[in-house]
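Batch manifest line 426
LIGAND: zinc ion
JOB: complex structure
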Amino acid sequence: MSTILLTIVSLKMASRVIFDPSSCFSHFLINRLKKAHDVPAPTLRQFSDYLKIVPIEGKGFGVVAIKDIEPCTLLFAEAAAGAALVDPASLTASNESILQAVSHMTPEIRARFYALHEGPRPFITREMRIWKTNCFDWPNPNMPENSWGAICIDMSRINHSCLPNTDYMHNPSTDKMELYSTRAITAGTEITIRYGLEFEYCTADERKARLRYIYGFTCTCPICSDSPLQMKSDQRRRLIKRNYFVGMMGQATVPDFSAKALGIDGPMSTRPIGSQRRGVGFHDGMQIFRPGTQEFMRHTLKLMYDDGLMCGEDFWMHANIYASTALIRIHKKMKAQMGMPTRQDLVEMMPLQKLFMASTILQVKTRAEDDPFAIQLKEDFALVMNMFNVIIMEPMTIKQSEEAIREIMEREPDPLVERHWRPRAS
Ligand SMILES: [Zn+2]
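JOB STATUS: finished
ARTIFACT:
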């Protein structure tokens, strides 16, 4: 991404956000907030049984594991230090809402808020620049149609990687942001999350442009560093994007995330896989029972796995949907042939059952017991198991689930090496 282009975009953005601050919030509030700037921030500390904040070379601060961590471990849950409107269409109202939220923080929390990274975007106040750079999407039941963002002071200290070792989600029953390990992590390793929600569909250049525009840093993770690994990863992510949007969603073309990389929302601004998580829009346009769609899903899973995206909720959910729909398709076929499975059916069923069980366990374990989605998953699980009327294996532990997925995925050839492999068109 050229610097000139970024500058032009920055100037355009700047011209959109300039307004008279005195017209929308009081000077009293600004003066009160300014006083907190010089308070030293107590950032270096342990904030969970597993994590502590430390200086990280080249990144300012970061978070590291203080002990070995198993996958699917709840590492930390944090309540919001404040929630505010973060609507790109109403910057004035958002700014006012952010200033209000900051003014309600305790002096200690406010000092730590001001110590967070400010980001390079030209928002009118420092508070808004810090807020927009660090906030997490946060539901506001009273205003569900507006975008709300909350600050989680400690969670904000976690740096980005395009191959992160943790994932986070808002738990509606506790109203806290929860952080889970998605891989085994050894003591001393830096804890990372991904900042860009569509990154599994973006090449290194697209990801870098977005990270530079919003956060002002250049990612140096293994798949962003100029190397054969990066080239291979870019190729895989282009295929993942094509498979998802063309093969599974039935779209004529793939969305262009380059505008989004520069903070300009294009027509495709929602997160495709994330929409499944919220239970909306997933089935729209996706005929998951078509054998063709399932081939695309299988191919996508393999690409995600080979690119290091095999851990985390999105992969597990993808695997779960693929395995359950493929199993139901075989079941329907068996019913049509008087319940007699062919040898081919049996060969196909065993790894699917294993994949279904493993992906269910990995998803349920990263959610609270009373999380509505976890309850739904358990019901679906029982339904599919009853349908086959067999106990296929002993219940798996998290470790066994991970191994099962690895074994299934590694059995398939790398699609980039397998030149003649093509998903069947339906
Ligand atoms: Zn990266």
